Model the fold of this input.
Amino acid sequence: AVVSTQSTGMEFDSGWRYLTLLAAVPILVMLVLTHLMEESPRYFVINNRQEEAERVLGKIFKQNGREPLQGTVLVVDERSANFADVWLKPYTAGSIQISILFLCNSFVYFGFYMLFPDIMSNNYCSTDTYLKVTHVDSSGCTVYTDDGYVFLALSTLILFPTGKLVGTYLSEIVGRRETFCISIFGGTLVTISLAVCLSPYLTYVQLIFADILYSTYNEVLWIYGPEFYPTYMRGTAVGVHNGLAKLGAGLGCFLTTYLDEYDVRYSIYCYVAVLLVSCVTVVFMKKETRGQHLQDTRENENTPLRCENQFYGTD
Done:
């Protein structure tokens, strides 16, 4: 999007069409790639397609350099879940907590990007602290300068995946809950500091750390959420939480646009309040999923895998 807007040189009335077309390209790529993806072995077995299930399993073993197990693939638990099951015991408390985190993360993450131009311009402070990333064009519209586009491109192409990698790494090293604490608490402190008028260079640093911490929060959330549920419920639960995330994103963008008309800091204070709700939620989270096997695969590490009257060791 940054490249499109900068390179087309079009007037706003026509430039947005090129931007929209470019944004549609990844969707078309995804549409093609989905037809190349395999269904899960579980799906094939439940639908009495045994040969296809064994073919997919064989492919998985081959890709991981392992010898395939011999026997017939069985699905012990053929239950299916619905919306109500996500909120029943023993998942009630965890589902509520995960829902709150999805809402809060999307609220702050997407709202923050809506507020990016004004924070970068630092328009609530004196002119000495401006980042000089926007200017008013001949039509009276505020647009990015070349430096503004460079920073926005770097934050999108570098900082976002950096946060994802940091979230994945910390989740495996210190655990999911600790990564939540680090990213949310750190994000809260950085967001509070954005309301203070500092030098342009410090504002750059603040925005960089905020971007990485919000992205880290998002990554560990998508790791922890699916791990919390057994397979028969996982798809339904993730769908529910993803829907709540979309709701949070919509609310964040709407309130940011509304509050920005009065003062940029109002949106920042709103983000801080939402992040504090996330902090309180994480404090009450009891379950750690790092190192945990899928619940309906093995009850513990010493339980052997089973394939129709034959047992195979976990190695």
